[in-house]
Amino acid sequence: MSLFEKQKVVGYWGPVTSSVDWCEENYTHSFYIAEFWNTVSSFAMVVLGFLGILAHHRSLGWRLSNGYLMIVVVGFGSILFHGTLQYEHQMWDEVPMVWTACYLLWVLLQENGYEPIRYGVGISLYCALATYVTSQSKGSTQFYLFQTSFGIVMWSCLWFVWKLYKNVQNNQVIRLFHQGGKFLGLAIGVWLFDSNMCFIYDYVPNPQLHAWWHVLMCISLHYFFVATGFELMGTQQHRITYYANWIPYVQLLDKIE
Prior knowledge:
Helix content: 55-70%
Strand order of the largest sheet: 1-2
Oligomer: single chain
Structural class: mainly alpha
Shape: globular
Mean pLDDT: 91
Order of helices and strands: HHHHHHHHEE
């Protein structure tokens, strides 16, 4: 279905007003959900966030746990956005993404010895500017300005994570960083394909790559959170263990009975 044909499909929430309409056909599975699979997959962020808080609020402390909490907010915003394709709900997805990225950058700067108040003010000002740019522009301009402002912060975060990774000696942690990197690369690949190659789905079935982007990014973020959190703790009281032998998390040893 072409973009023009997609925009003619009207469901419960009315015509599309968001600055982007993904490749998934609108209102195919429900009159009340604009993009069904993109909406359902957004719950992965909510699940990741709550499980991350549950697993790490003691072992990693409040700063990284707050990062998981902000991912929950992004997840609910993503549900609203993909479920309605309305501009105001799109802001509930994109603005919290900017806030989350800025918060994680502040945490990483502090852990790298940067003065938290001075750089916190600078990050807050950037966050306010990015929020304004994201929420006040329209159409394709809005989409690219958001991607740029969000991308600058996220790639800055990844640079600090890379610095941390280069000094890791623990092979278990190194493997977690590698897993996070692999899932991140795969997630970016499917996002780029789904963002630019919608015309292909006129000839082949749509594998719902944007929905997979949600899931793959959640997996990548969790691997990075666990590896980074463990390294930042830097104590012998912490260890990496696995729930059901496949979901890693950081455990505080003195809590083991």
